[in-house]
Structures are given as C-alpha cells and as structure tokens.
Design goal:
Elements (H helix, E strand, L loop, with lengths): L1 E3 L6 H5 L7 E10 L2 H4 L7 E3 L10 E6 L2 E8 L6 H11 L1 H4 L3 E11 L7 E2 L2 E3 L1 H4 L10 H18 L9 H30 L3 H11 L2 H13 L7 H21 L15
Parallel strand pairs: 1-8
Antiparallel strand pairs: 2-5, 2-6, 3-4, 4-5, 7-8
The structure holds flavin-adenine dinucleotide.
Length: about 270
C-alpha cells in the first residue's frame, strides 16, 4: 500500500495519473515583530479584501506564536502575486513597522479534489488529493484528518496486515466516508467564495455581513466543528435578505475592479 501525502506537487499523484486540479498560488512572508507590535495580534488574526490584494481571494496577517505570517493568494492572476503581496504589506504597514523578515514562502494551493484519489493500492490524502477548502484556504486540518481516515480504513481492511485491500474496498471506505462527511462543507465554501470574492462590491457586502453576530456565530462554529452549522430557519431567511441588501449596497459604494488582461487557467 502507498499513501500519497506529498503535497500539492505530488509525485505520487502523477505516478498514478490522478488527474489535474485548478490551483491558487499563495505567497507568505513571515515577519518577526517588535514585542509591542506583536501584542496587537495576541487575540486576533486579520483578513484583508480588495482587488489591490487579490482579485479572487483574501490577504491575511495571522499570528504564529512569536511572529506573524503576512500573505495573499490568487487563482486567476498568478503572475501578479508579488504585486498583491506588496499591497497587503502596504495596507498593514503601520502594524508591521519595525518587523524583520524571517522567511518567504510561495506554494500552490489546490482548488478541488483530483479526479482520481485512489488507483490500485495507492491512495492520496491532504493537498496531494486536493483537500483545501475554498473561501478560507484551510488545508492543515483536512490533511491530517484525511491521513487518519485513509490509514484507519486501510488498517481495518487489511485485517491488521493479513490481506491487501483492493481499489474498490478503499473507495468504498476512505473515499466514500470522506465525501459523505465533507462534500457539503466544501460545496458551501465554494459557493461563498464565488459569491463574496468575485468583485469589490461583493467584498464590501462580505465585510458588512461579518459585523452581524449571527454570521459570526455560524462562521466560528463551522470553522471549529469543520462542518457547516446552521441556526434557526428564521435567522437563515433574515440572513438571505440581509445578504441581498449588502450586495446591492456594496455594489453602489465599491470602486470597480481593475481589469485582468489574461485569466490564468493553469492546472497542476
Ligand atoms: C502560504 C500558505 C499559507 C497557508 N496557510 C494556511 C493556514 O493558515 N491554515 C491552513 O489550514 N492551511 C494553510 N495553508 C494550506 C496548508 O499549508 C496545506 O493545505 C497543508 O500543509 C497540506 O498538508 P500536506 O501534508 O497534504 O502537504 P504538505 O504540507 O505540502 O506536506 C507534503 C510533504 O511531503 C514532502 N514531499 C513532497 N514530495 C516528496 C518526495 N518526492 N519525497 C519525499 N517527500 C516529499 C514535502 O517535503 C512535505 O514535507 C497554507 C498554504 C500556503 C501555501
């Protein structure tokens, strides 16, 4: 048995002809801040939106124990990633003042699962399989979780190493269980990304909605429990109307996005 846990550029995925996925490129600078500046990030993480930062994703300043990660990502305009990184650095400039750059990272992030995640006795997990959620770009939890689910299924199927599991058996356990557990979560986040990151008007709406306590609760619960949690149907209907209102208002106040010359459709 082989479990391909070798990340977005997976050699194992290529070896089994697992098929391609669309991907984002993410860029991150790790910055060590002076102590008094780091205090600001003790209790919060920052998310920045706008077409200066990314035409289809968000920029971030995330605290990482003793430093911050400052970054951004994009699918459709990968060649401009450094320009977007400069923009997030400029937007957060006051808070990052006096910081020392300690590491620069740039890496692909899969946008959806590969067409084939099991071939023969090879199974893919994590980024190799394409398990990063849209909208938040979260992949660490899902990489660990898929590794565990694949391993547990295989140990059980192999009767503790006595028999070799077949492709169908792996598909009917690990892949089926994964899709049952997470398909809806991925789909909802996919829709949210398509709705709220598509232009500056939608991003204004997103920012306005984030002030709503119900939105905050549903978002944090979903993030915590890794499943889309829902409140009462009445609150959901209220939210629907609020969203429409926010999108209309957002489109009225936002400046139009800068045009992108060539939409990047590269796949990995
Ligand atoms: C800039 C950036 C910021 C991110 N921020 C977040 C975040 O805040 N939260 C979050 O949840 N996710 C985040 N992600 C996504 C997250 O990092 C990935 O989804 C996650 O690391 C995937 O884990 P993985 O084990 O599948 O792959 P990886 O972490 O890529 O690990 C793959 C491992 O395989 C090894 N490997 C590859 N090829 C070979 C080979 N041929 N032989 C031997 N070893 C090999 C690599 O060296 C690596 O150690 C971010 C990604 C990027 C690029």
């Amino acid at each position: 048995m082989v479990i391909g846990a070798d990340g977005a550029n997976s050699r194992v995925a290529k070896a089994i002809d697992a098929g391609e996925y669309a991907y984002a490129i993410a860029f991150q600078e790790r910055i060590k801040l002076p102590e008094e500046k780091m205090e600001y990030y003790e209790e919060l993480a920052e998310m920045y939106v706008g077409d200066d930062i990314s035409p289809d994703f968000y920029g971030w300043v995330f605290p990482k124990y003793d430093h911050v990660g400052v970054g951004t990502g994009t699918v459709i305009n990968k060649n401009a990633i450094k320009q977007y990184q400069t923009a997030i650095r400029e937007r957060a400039a006051d808070r990052l003042e006096g910081g020392k750059l300690i590491k620069v990272e740039a890496h692909p992030i899969p946008e959806h699962p590969r067409p084939r995640r099991v071939q023969g006795r090879v199974a893919l997990v994590g980024d190799a399989a394409g398990y990063v959620t849209k909208c938040s770009g979260e992949g660490i939890y899902f990489a660990a979780k898929s590794g565990r689910m694949a391993a547990e299924a295989i140990v059980k199927l192999s009767k503790n190493g006595e028999v070799l599991p077949t492709e169908d058996q792996i598909k009917n356990t690990y892949i089926r269980d994964w899709d049952n557990k997470y398909w809806a979560t991925y789909k909802v986040l996919d829709i949210l990304q398509a709705v709220f990151y598509r232009n500056n008007g939608a991003r204004e709406a997103f920012v306005e909605l984030c002030e709503d306590e119900y939105v905050q609760k549903v978002t944090f619960d979903s993030y915590l429990y890794k499943t889309v949690t829902r409140g009462s149907p009445v609150d959901d209907i209220k939210l629907l109307f609020k969203t429409v209102g926010s999108i209309i208002r957002g489109n009225q106040i936002a400046k139009p996005d800068a045009p992108i010359a060539v939409i990047d459709n590269k796949r990995l």
